[in-house]
Design a protein that fits this description.
The strands form two sheets. Strands 6-7-8-3-9-10 form a six-stranded mixed sheet, sandwiched between helices. It has a four-stranded antiparallel sheet with strand order 2-1-4-5, covered by helices on one side. It contains seven helices and ten strands. It has 235 residues and is of the alpha/beta class. Helix 3 (104-114) packs across helix 4, helix 4 packs across helix 5 (148-160) and helix 5 runs parallel beside helix 6. The model has no long low-confidence stretch (mean pLDDT 96). The longest helix is centred in the last third of the chain and has 18 residues, at 178-195. The structure holds adenosine-5'-diphosphate (ADP) and magnesium ion. Magnesium ion is lined by residues 48-49. Magnesium ion (MG) binds next to helix 1.
Length: 235
């Protein structure tokens, strides 16, 4: 089976003008297989978000190879890339990115509007996913009527509605208290174990990374360590 993510000598160079350049990624070789649960760590500025944006087809590398589920992304049209983004990838952000004055149910339904799922199915599927993440009772609540942890659960439900193979989460617990953080990580663990969804998440916190099966550390645009860790039962 093709890896979900394969990169070879992936580079992202920013021209800063005046001859200055930053190698946000200085040649990254990585393979992430289906079913993995990976935490990406590293200091601020080490290239984590740049890597996530390229993997999520939100940005393009300056050079190098990126294959998603076996297809060389550089050969795809903008429509084909948008299709992968909408059908194969789920995104979770630190700041939840829910629409305000919009209910949990409507927020969870949004990606299905873009992917053309009929309205009747949208309600059913969104409710199903809200139930999986444990916030179906909040279906009619707007974001400002929910705690941070509840909002992040809705955002995770939203990431699930098109049945992605890979969830990309950039510091998903960065704005949460310890208890909500733990609950969100238990939820990712459940989605990885029970539904086989591949998870790639960025975190600064060792406690959060401890939930992953593999930890990749970036520094100055390079991978400086890549190790498997024992599965831990959350304390
Ligand atoms: P991290 O997520 O690990 O904090 P980033 O991927 O955001 O790191 O950034 C990696 C490096 O690339 C940093 O030096 C950052 O300043 C630089 N960088 C990121 N985005 C841009 C941009 N749009 N223009 C110029 N430099 C950028
Ligand atoms: Mg970042």
């Amino acid at each position: 089976m093709e890896p979900v993510v394969y990169t070879k000598d992936l580079q992202k160079i920013y021209d800063l003008g005046g001859g200055g350049r930053v190698a946000a990624l200085g040649g990254v070789d990585l393979k992430i297989n289906s079913g993995e649960f990976v935490a990406v760590m590293g200091p601020s500025g080490s290239g984590k978000s740049t890597f996530m944006h390229i993997v999520g087809l939100l940005d393009e590398p300056t050079s190098g190879i990126y294959r998603f589920e076996g297809s060389d992304v550089s050969t795809l049209s903008a429509d084909e890339r948008a299709d992968i983004r909408s059908r194969r990838l789920g995104f979770v952000f630190q700041s939840y990115n829910l629409l305000s004055r919009t209910t949990a149910l409507e927020n969870a339904e949004l990606p299905m509007i873009y992917s053309g799922v009929p309205e009747a199915d949208r309600h059913r599927i969104a409710l199903e996913k809200l139930a999986i993440v444990g916030v179906d009772s909040l279906r009619d609540h707007a974001p400002n009527q929910m705690s941070g942890g509840q909002q992040q659960r809705v955002a995770i439900a939203r990431s699930l509605v098109n049945n992605p193979g890979l969830i990309l989460a950039d510091e998903p617990t960065g704005a949460l208290d310890t208890k909500s953080s733990k609950e969100v990580m238990e939820l990712f663990t459940h989605l990885n174990k029970e539904q086989g969804i591949t998870i790639l998440l960025v975190t600064h916190e060792p406690d959060v990374a401890a939930y992953a099966k593999r930890v990749i550390t970036f520094r100055d645009g390079h991978v400086i360590s890549d190790r498997l860790q024992d599965e831990k039962v959350a304390a």
